[in-house]
Amino acid sequence: MGTRINLVEDEKNLNSVLTSYLEKEGWEVKSFKNGSDAFDEIDDSPDIWILDIMLPGIDGFELLREIRKRDSMIPVIFISARDKDIDRVIGLEMGSDDYLPKPFLPRELVIRVKKILERVHHSGGIISVPPYKIDEARRTVTEEVDENQSKLIELTSMEFDLLLLFISGKGKPFSRDQILDRVWGYDHYGSDRAVDDLVRRLRKKMPHFKIETVYGFGYKSVNI
Asked: In whole angstroms, what is the distance from residue 176 CA to residue 154 CA?
C-alpha cells in the first residue's frame, strides 16, 4: 500500500493545487474542505495529516486534538494564513510536527512531507537509555518503572526525532540551527523558538532523560 495523506483545506483552489502536487509524488490524497467531513474520517489512520487551522465547523486545533487521542505518532503539519506565533506554539504544544504559514510554494509542502515520511520510515534497533528503551523501528519509547512494569511514553514524530538526535550525538552540544536542520530537515524560516518548544516538551515527557541547556548556543544530552 502506498503513502496515504489526508489534506484538510477549505480554500477550494488551494486544496486542488496542493492535492495535485502531492499526487504527482505518487501519494494517495484524500482531501476535505471542512473540519466536519475530516472529523468523520478521523479513524482513517493515514500516513500523515495536513491541516489548515481556520476551517468552517471544526477547526484544525480540534481535529489535531482528536487525532492525538487516537495516535500520538501520526505526523501532522499545520498550515495557516494567520502566521501568528501563538498559533505555531499552540500547535506544537498540542502535538503538531510542523507549521507552514501561508502563502507558501506547494513544492515546499511536498519537501516537508517527504522529510517527515523519511524519518518516520527509518528503521533501526533497540536503544537502552535507562530507565528508557527506544525502539527505532517501531518508533516507540517505554519507561521501565520497576522489574515487572513498564509504561509507554507517547512522543510525537518530531519529539522522537529530537530524542534520536541527542542519542546519536553522545553528549555533543547541538546549536539551535543544527537542531532545526537535523530535525526539521530543511532550512527553517522563522524563529528558532520552535526548538525551545520542542525541547521543553521532550523534557516534560521524559524527565529522566537529561537535556542540558548550553546558554547562548543550544542543547545537549547528559545521559549518553
From this structure: 24
Residue 218 CB neighbour total at 10 angstroms:
20
Q: Which three cell numbers stand for residue 183?
A: 530535525
Q: How far apart are CA 89 and CA 62, in angstroms?
A: 15
| Residues with Cβ within 8 Å of residue 153, at least 6 apart in sequence | 132, 141, 142, 143, 205, 206
- Report the 10 Å Cβ neighbour count for 95: 21
- Say if CB 79 and CB 109 are below 8 A apart: yes
Contacts 24+ apart (CB under 8 A), 133-136: 134/163, 134/164, 134/167, 136/164
Q: Around Cβ 78, how many Cβ atoms within 10 Å?
A: 24
pLDDT in tens, 139-197: 889 998 877 788 999 898 889 989 999 988 878 899 998 898 888 765 555 567 888 98
* Cβ neighbour number for residue 219 with a 10 Å cutoff: 24
pLDDT at 100 exceeding the cut of 90? no
Cell numbers for 24:
504527482
Q: Which residues pair with 32 in a beta bridge?
A: 8
